[in-house]
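As promised in the previous annual report, we have extended the structural survey to additional targets. Below is the entry for Cyclin N-terminal domain-containing protein.
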Amino acid sequence: MPRKSVKTDLKTTSINEVSKESTARSRKRKADVAIYLQDPDEEVTEMTKKKQCVTQACWSQAPGCTSPCRRIPTPDDEVEEPVALSGLAFPQDTFQNLCITPVRSSPLPVLCWANRDDVWNNLLKKDKAYSRDVHFMEKHPQLEPKMRVILLDWLLEVCEVYKLHRETFYLAQDFFDRYMATQKNVVKTRLQLIGISSLFIAAKLEEIYPPKVHQFAYVTDGACTEEEILSMELIIMKELKWSLSPLTSISWLNIYMQVAYLKDSGEVLIPQYPQATFVQIAELLDVCVLDVKCLEFSYGVLAASALFHFSSMELVEKVSGFQWSDMEECVKWMVPFAMAIREVGSSGLKTFKGIPADDLHNIQTHAPYMDWLDKAYSYQLVDVERSQRSPVPSGVLTPPPSSEKPEMAQS
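The corresponding structure token record, generated without further manual editing, is:
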């Protein structure tokens, strides 16, 4: 046979052997993949068996050889006595109950559009999420509490001029107080700019047709320009970390009143309560928020305490879920303000051109609140003097007769 043909045969034979070997490997890989796709657990079991076989082959002992695996005893092989858990003393704060039952039960009726417990729990969470600092004035040595009173009273007047809602004012008051708590050494010449910018933000959030920025600049009588208001608007929102939706005290009052006067129809979205009664209680809140000490209490407690001064504790417990211990301090603090409101009387329900009759109670009005606040402070002084001469605890004043309270819904 020629030498060339022999070489050709050898080459062909080697190529066939290589192709058979590669085909076998590819088939093996495909088979492994198929097994894994069918059942991953079987593939893992198969791989474990292979590893065990390899391990046994590697460590198979020959005659006369010593195993490389040895057991080294511990120095102290004594059995320890079990310790009784009852003898251990754990700190009381080591464990916490993660399943906390809400203290305030839901007073909401059955809702057709949501679970009433979920809605109520969300309201409670929001009330706790927005915290205020009652001592924020200490961060501003050049400011006095009276300056805050003057500013908020002026914002109340601006709200009435532009027919803004009560919620708009209370949002602005919240934004102002929380922003001031984040700052230091604010001068009094900046207060009006901060206040009007807070109202500008609140109006854009709450009002359907909010006033334009030039209208807010106009009421400052040249003290604040449009550019300054727009710049301060962004600064305030950044400092508040864009948390701009608190549940204000006027919102809580609206909820409490609606639950108190809810009829059998179950229509919770349409106000069922008397507008005059709502306005009278809202005016008490208007005076109270002028005092910086109102920041000590949550918005829900403020609204419940205001409602208490015009109704009864039984009704307040029914509509708010609060117990007397939850609101006792706030109720006593609010006594002088309630006495001032009763002395001067309510300003009543005002009418505004272009405002529907069923929405009049929601429009923020302005009254001589600073005069009413002075009367409340005078009652506080009388209470302090009485507490110094008498062993009766401070803040415990005789409530008015039942006949002087407005008639509320029967619980």
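Confidence is low (pLDDT under 50) at residues 27-41, 53-60, 83-102. The CA atoms of residues 56 and 406 lie 93 Å apart. These points will be discussed at the next consortium meeting with the crystallography subgroup.
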